[in-house]
Every structure is written in structure tokens, then in C-alpha cells.
Design brief:
Layout: E1 2-7, H1 10-18, E2 22-25, H2 32-40, E3 45-51, H3 52-57, H4 59-68, E4 73-77
Parallel strand pairs: 1-2, 1-3, 3-4
């Protein structure tokens, strides 16, 4: 299983990448739902880490994943 992160902060993404976690940084938060959908197509993703802003923009889709799917585990960074 892979860990994947969708963030809006380059510094956090660099730290995640250095630790081996694939990270993308969204400068345009309007495409959050599209990126979440792309990640969900990969059945090997076991943990999805998102930043607070990404969660707020994709709340409906992420809450649906949390409630109805066993994987991935969704972790929100509340900084």
C-alpha cells in the first residue's frame, strides 16, 4: 500500500517527498475534487494525507470516502 498526499504547501510537500511519500501541491484549489478522483482510481493507495485547505475544498468527496470505504485512510493535517 502507498501513502499519497495532496497539499497546498510546498514546504510540507518537500518534507513528505524526502520521507518517500508521493506528494502533489495544488496551487489552484478548484481542482481538488479532480485530483482526489485520480488518487481514488489507484487501489494501491492505503493512506491519503491532505492539508486543511484541501480538505475544506474537497470536504464532500473526502467525507464520502471516510464514511463508505475501508481504504484509503484519510488523514488531515490541521496546521
Amino acid at each position: 500500500m502507498k501513502i499519497y498526499s495532496i497539499l497546498d504547501d510546498m514546504d510540507t510537500a518537500v518534507g513528505f517527498n524526502l520521507s518517500g511519500i508521493h506528494s502533489i501541491v495544488l496551487e489552484d484549489l478548484d481542482i481538488v475534487n479532480k485530483k482526489i478522483g485520480e488518487v481514488m482510481e489507484d487501489n494501491n493507495v492505503g493512506i491519503l494525507v491532505v492539508s486543511k485547505n484541501v480538505y475544506e475544498h474537497g470536504k464532500e468527496k473526502l467525507d464520502n470516502i471516510i464514511e463508505k470505504r475501508k481504504t484509503p485512510l484519510v488523514v488531515v493535517i490541521w496546521k
